[in-house]
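Figure S7 source data.
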Amino acid sequence: MSTNDIEMLVRSILAEKSQLFETAASASQCFGAEFEQVDDAVAACLEAFKALDSNAFEVRQRIINELRKALEPYIVKLSEDAWAETGMGNVPNKIQKNTAALHKTPGTEDLHSQALCGDHGITLFEYSPYGVIGAITPSTNPTETIINNTISMLAAGNTVMFSPHPGAQKISRWLINKIEEIIFNLTGIHNVVVAVKEPTFQTTQQMIDHRDIRLLVVTGGPGIVNTAMKSGKKVIGAGEGNPPVIVDETADIEEAAEHIISGASFDHNLPCIAEKACIVVDTVADELLSSFARHGALLITCPQQQQHLMAAIVTPEGTINKTMVGKSPATILTAAGIPFQGEPRLLVMEVSNDHPLLYIEQLMPVLPVVRAADFNAALELAIKVERGCLHTATMHSRDVYNLSKAARALRTSIFVKNAPSYAGIGVGGEGYTTFTIATPTGEGTTSARSFVRTRRCVLNSAFNIK
Ligand code: NAD
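Tokens for the predicted nicotinamide-adenine-dinucleotide complex:
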């Protein structure tokens, strides 16, 4: 290739890049990937999908590699700003969650083509994108979910309109704009990810109803999952959970206590997978409770203090007090007027098996503990506590038959044995990371292959070389 040829090639690439810039940036675009109107955001994202779709498959992985590199310096900022804006959780655990989302979400390697060969030729089963996905993200893992969804959905060839939680909109919008900048600088394609400038419940509803949104992916509570289900579209719903943890008499109690405290106090219990209720076989209950105290939990044993704690975290109507969600144990104790020393990691309270705290998803570092006569009674209660969310459960035991029986009976998307719950999302445990665990719709721990259409491509009478 001559110098002239190279110059021509560079010029044509630059021209193409600037043309894409003009095509994809619509009149209502504010800056970066933000739009005033849902219609304009979706239209731009559809253009981006067409541009991405006309590129080579390997471009998707190049973008993902670049995102992993270019977002790394912002992990601390994302964690600090999310904490400052939402007032929930804690920065060190948010750093762990963002790091896992950025580096342990699978890319295009997650998509395995399948082929059937025989006398009639070859049939290929291939994973193809939907187009523009409408993704709704929560306040509890705002930036983690955007990073995780972007990588998974993009690996599958889609572009994404995000509808971030209004309570975490500032940091979510900052991140979406940063992702836009990184992708544009690498590819010249604008609007692979977009959002509206002011996300509200109304704009979320408009996105749900938009004709060009082919797939809805909802990470949030039951209200918004049910709202999306009414759209008549394909929905991947990642809804609420109420994960029980069972401890049987064969468990290593010291290790179980350490793991339960670590899991239930992680990001002040904000993750949907975090241990929300502990059910322990009676013969080892006292030992577990004293181990909890050794691992930094504060046991609330005085009945009057228990009442004050309940009044601080549950409303008279029996719902959670939202102002206490994701707050530190110290903040909750102060609100309850309970004196304490130091910085407890978790508040633990022994309760009876009909206590309301066992059954509500409180998302706070408060763990109710209940005794069961034996393993079978513990399992029966755990199923009741889980309330059919089929989300997450954990268990500590050395009895493989008990573990197996619980895994089968609980039917949860994630079942963690002898580890903190976060091992189930690739933090410390084997396996990849996800922040969208699709329980009501059954996709489980989502990754690129969850966001594809399976297509069948048949070639008659050729390429069978068996
Ligand atoms: P949320 O339900 O309050 O909000 C989720 C999103 O839905 C937000 O973007 C919000 O703006 C939007 N939204 C809520 N109600 C809406 C409505 N009626 N119309 C339009 N938009 C609406 O969730 P949250 O408080 O941020 O997150 C906590 C909940 O999410 C918990 O129940 C938790 O278990 C669940 N969660 C589940 C997963 C999972 O992977 N399964 C992950 C994280 C959080």
